[in-house]
Design a protein that fits this description.
heterodimer, A: 331 residues, alpha/beta, Rossmann fold, 2 domains, five-stranded parallel beta sheet, 8 helices, 17 strands, elongated, B: 256 residues, 28% helix
């Protein structure tokens, strides 16, 4: 059977999760390099609208896997539906975005088929004839090229931002859409999910801030956040934090930046005492200018910083506040 | 509630890492600690035991040094520990790790199995979900709250961007636990003393080897990431750095 690439996108209640376009770009890039046809799969109930959106892209085929049992999402239903589909359509590669939902079911799906997932990849390479997938290890300190040792399908999930949403190519004409009714037997779905809700009353919308001063574990104590707040104020920006700060209750949850919090792309992002763990980076790597202050010269945050200060933030921030005030006063 | 907590020992967060000669793994001469999400998983299991009674068992697969993680867990209040002890367990992928864990517990009857949502070294976030599939149990991931309910449990799943979802599930089940679900306790002196007398069962590689298969994926190369960004390091006394930085932000980056 000829090799194909299948991109499985994510939708909820008829709305496509934006990160899906990135995965389509990934699929198109791999298709161009390997010559393998690219297909797109979407699961849900009444997803004709989403399928139509997808068919406008440069893809060979869109498959809509339909069942009332696929809405709302459960891992049992999604794994069962895809397993059925993959039994008769065996792509070489199955690509998905590394979302919380994909993490919830794709290892189950792969295991049920005796296959494996290389997850949270940031890219791929062709090593001669071999396809290897690149992923970060040790919270971003090192990088690994990983190959598959078993049979197809090979499951790969890509990190947010690894490919560009706006590079997903449109097709010359609409791709064919095939609707497949999936049978999910009674008793397969064991979880009963309730309505999705937002918990933190959103007092601040960090996605609208042009300047963000963000604190991590390096701030050491809650009372030290005050100097970061003063810096944010001097800059006319907003205060934010990495997850551990919000977990400790030192700042409210709506100030959290990262995969579980807000994803921001401000003009200026100042990371104070933030090591740069992957879960945080995915939430801010789109910032136009990144400044990082950290005692540890090996901190992964320095990989993505435009300006880096290896030093004690408690030494740097006070004079920084003064210099900012001077500059703003027209000095 | 009989709860199993799967724990992993990983290199310390700020440990300087060096590549081995073949460039396929790190050199082992680093300091180790418990994988942070697993510490939260353990804490959650202890709180569930305090609320509902039962037993907390901790398990790890790794070389002799990994026993430290189990000892600390016992000191915090876990009742017994299982150590799949062998150097061979270090290189296993998530699939085979889950297989050996399942093999080691095949005669036990747990109500709940917890893992941390992912490890700080590999960061795959798969072992718990794979384990659930191997056992045929329902699962839920990235959990921030667990309550007993009529049909089993009601858990709070964390989603992206500040969203959450409650899910009702039957038991037995596997849950992967998110950091920050609770506040970690310290082991007390009494706890540390009592830990010495708690059962620690060692499971040899030979006992579980038949469950293992070949690794389905392989790290071809491990390396230091290539810098794509042109980072400017600002050096000197703090006052000077502050001045330089503001000047750069103003005139170069043009964000001030």
């Amino acid at each position: 059977m000829p090799n194909t690439i299948l991109v499985v996108v994510e939708q909820s209640e008829g709305k496509l999760n934006r990160v899906s376009w990135e995965t389509i770009t990934a699929g198109q890039t791999l298709a161009a390099e390997t010559g393998w046809p690219l297909e797109v799969g979407v699961l849900g109930n009444n997803v004709a609208g989403v399928a139509g959106e997808l068919a406008a892209k440069k893809v060979a085929r869109v498959c809509a896997l339909e069942s009332p049992k696929l809405e709302p999402y459960t891992p049992d239903a999604y794994a069962a539906a895809l397993k059925q589909f993959l039994a008769t359509n065996t792509p070489k590669l199955v690509l998905m975005p590394h979302t919380y939902q994909v993490r919830d079911f794709v290892p189950k799906l792969a295991t049920s088929m005796g296959r494996t997932v290389v997850s949270d990849c940031i890219g791929y390479k062709k090593d001669g004839d071999k396809l290897v997938f690149t992923r970060q290890m040790f919270q971003g300190k090192l990088v690994a090229d990983v190959s598959f040792a078993g049979d197809a399908p090979w499951f790969v999930t890509f990190q947010n931002g690894a490919f560009r949403e706006d590079k997903a190519e449109a097709g010359a004409s609409a791709a064919p859409v095939e609707t497949i009714k999936v049978e999910i037997a009674d008793g397969v779905v064991r979880n009963k999910p309730q309505e999705i809700f937002k918990e933190a009353k959103q007092a601040v919308d960090l996605t609208q801030a042009e300047i963000i001063v963000s604190v991590g574990r390096g701030i050491k104590e809650q009372k030290n956040i005050e100097i970061a707040r003063q810096l944010a104020e001097a800059l006319g920006g907003e205060l934010a934090a990495s997850r551990p700060i919000c977990d400790s209750g030192w700042l409210p949850m709506d100030r959290q930046i990262g995969s579980s919090g807000q994803t921001v792309a401000p003009q200026l992002y100042l990371a104070l005492g933030i090591s740069g763990a992957i879960q945080h980076i995915v939430g801010m790597k789109g910032a136009r200018t990144i400044v990082a202050v950290n005692k540890d010269s090996e901190a992964p945050i320095f990989e993505i910083a435009d300006y880096a200060v290896v030093g004690n933030l408690f030494d740097i921030v006070p004079p920084l506040i003064e210099e900012v005030k001077k500059a703003k006063a027209g000095g | 509630m009989k709860i199993l907590v799967c724990m992993k020992q990983v290199p310390q967060k700020d440990a300087p890492l060096k590549l081995n000669d073949s460039g396929t793994w790190i050199r082992e001469d680093v300091s180790y600690e418990v994988n942070e999400p697993d510490a939260y998983a353990l804490e959650e299991s202890l709180r569930q035991k305090e609320k509902h009674g039962g037993e907390v068992v901790v398990i790890t697969s790794g070389p002799a040094r990994a026993q430290q993680v189990l000892r600390e867990a016992l000191a915090k209040g876990a009742d017994r520990a299982i150590h799949l002890e062998d150097n061979a367990f270090v290189g296993l992928d998530a699939f085979n790790t889950a297989k050996v864990l399942a093999a080691a517990i095949k005669d036990e009857k747990f109500d709940l199995i917890f893992t941390g949502l992912q490890s700080d070294d590999y960061g795959y976030a798969q072992t718990g979900v794979i384990l659930a599939e191997l056992l045929g149990w329902p699962h839920a991931t990235i959990i921030m709250q667990i309550e007993k309910s009529d049909g089993g449990i009601k858990v709070k799943r964390e989603l992206e961007a500040g969203y959450f979802q409650f899910v009702e599930m039957p038991l037995p089940a596997v849950l992967t636990i998110q950091s920050g679900i609770n506040k970690l306790r310290y082991a007390t002196l009494i706890g540390i003393k009592q830990a010495k007398n708690k059962p620690l069962r060692k499971v040899a590689l030979a006992e579980v080897q038949s469950a293992m298969g070949a690794n389905l994926q392989k790290i071809e190369r491990l390396y230091v990431p290539q810098k794509t960004k042109n980072t400017q390091f600002l050096e000197g006394p703090a006052a000077e750095v502050a001045k330089k930085l503001v000047e750069k932000l103003r005139n170069e980056a043009r964000v001030l």
